[in-house]
Amino acid sequence: MSYRSSITIRAVVLFSASLATLLAQQDRIASPVDRFQKVALKGNIHPNADPLFDVGPADPSMKLDHVMVMLSRSAEQQADLDRLLAEQQDRSSRNYHAWLTPEQFGDRFGASPNDMTQVVSWLQSEGLAVDAVSRARNWIWFSGTAGQMQSALRTEIRRYRVNGESHFANSSEPSVPAALASIVTGVTGLDDFHARPAQSRRVLTSAASARSSIGPQFSASGGVHYLAPDDLATIYNLKPLYAAGYDGSGQRIAVAGESAVDLSDIRLFRALHSLPQKDPQLVRVPGTADPGFNDAMDEADLDIEWAGAVARNANIIYVYSVDARLSALYAIDQNLAPVISLSFGLCESQNSQGLLTITRTLAQQANAQGITWVAATLDSGAAGCDVGGSARTPKASKGLAVDFPASLPEVTAVGGTQFDEAGGNYWSPFNSFTLASALSYIPEKSWNESDDQGLAATGGGLSKVSTKPTWQTGPGVPSVNFRTIPDVSLSAAGHDGYLAIIGGEPVVEEGTSAATPRLREFWR
């Protein structure tokens, strides 16, 4: 290549980059913002905000925080982003693994500073408090009372009782000034229907029986075994990686949750298995209420402990708030880690269309920043809309469904397997000093331990909202034009469940959430 040709190519590249930046920064709000002339945004009502569940209006003085208005990309910006995402995975491209910072993403794909200012000014004119503006200039967090939200967004916040639980939600589509309608994708945070954790049930519910199971022998009676970190190292052949220095050192993993955690649980778990003592960094999303210790603590302990059980020297960052999806959003905005682990979700039809669109918008940003987002496929098998069930209630009664956000093409969906020993000699009758007893790799099959106690099987199937991504090809991939999940699967069965320390007690857990936080180390 001649010097002149090289100069010409560089000039074209620089011109293209400059053109993309100019397109990104064009003001798109074309007329004055009149707060009295508003139009409704479609697709922003939660499916459970149904008159059948309505129990009356919400208290107008109820405080709502971290309500979010999401700003859209122009058609040109979206096309540019689609090209970039493809190039970042193309080894022959100059953009291969050329990850962006949130600010760089905003300069290219976000709203212009002038447009951001106008949206902020409108919210403040309605008496709402603007709490944060995203670094990528694509969303704004604001807060106020239910009464203020109703007035500003021309909707009504009502109470609903669903499956015995009390909730609130907007009963009609929120509205924004007509001048902003073309730049606003949707509004979230007007309801408290949150995603559920993936972990389906504990294998052992008695602290006494759990304690006895981790005595001198880690193998329980009846051919059941419980997994220690070194068992995973043996079964999935991680020991050569550890010996070569690939133990997570220098890496960061963000775990998204919605409960406070007690560090003594994590410390006891690591001491029990002779892992290096390394506390996770605890990050509560600024401005959110402390959720305290709640039912999601089981999930938090399991995810933190097992993320560190495989990536033993990684820096684990536990990001928490009252909503795990809010925690994941904050981790993306702050670019906290190159991997985000989320063990929460809902079946696709239990999310509003607005939330589906907004979450994919954020997942694409995460990918452009070099973030691998792993999410559990949850534990209801091919019936993602059915949760649990028992001998007295129908199981899998709501049809075939997969869970979201694992079903997004930009998210790596993690399913579950179970070991298929078939009479083979895969376990030692004695434990090592780290409580390990696995002897080798163990054949696996799809996890399904559903019984009269409820559903307990790997989530999976066809998405009803996402088409098949171009990269999803290969033997066994269905030919239909729908996103199929899971992408990868690891042990999740209760038959050989995972030991965890929760509330100071040893328990054994099952579920795809156990597989999800430890996946990243396999790719390092």
Task: Characterize the structure shown.
This protein has 524 residues and is an alpha/beta fold. The protein folds into 2 domains: 15-193, no CATH class; 197-523, Rossmann fold (3-Layer(aba) Sandwich). Helix content is 26%, strand content 21%. The chain is globular and about 75 Å long.
Kindly summarize this structure in a few lines:
The chain has 524 residues and is α/β, with parallel strands linked by helices. Helices cover 26% and strands 21% of the residues. It folds into two domains: 15-193, no CATH class; 197-523, Rossmann fold, CATH 3.40.50.200.
Quick check: average pLDDT?
Answer: 88
Q: Helical content, roughly?
A: 25-40%
Major sheet, described briefly?
A: 8 strands, mixed
Give the N-terminus to C-terminus distance in angstroms: 36 Å
Number of strands: 24
At the fourth level of CATH, the homologous superfamily of the largest domain is Peptidase S8/S53 domain
Shape: globular
How much is the radius of gyration in Å? Answer: 24 Å
* Structure class: alpha/beta
- The appropriate CATH architecture of the largest domain is 3-Layer(aba) Sandwich
Number of domains: 2
Low-confidence stretches: 1-18, 201-218, 520-524
**Fraction in beta strands:** 15-25%
CATH topology of the largest domain: Rossmann fold
Seen as an oligomer or otherwise, the chain set is single chain
Kindly provide the name of the CATH class of the largest domain: Alpha Beta
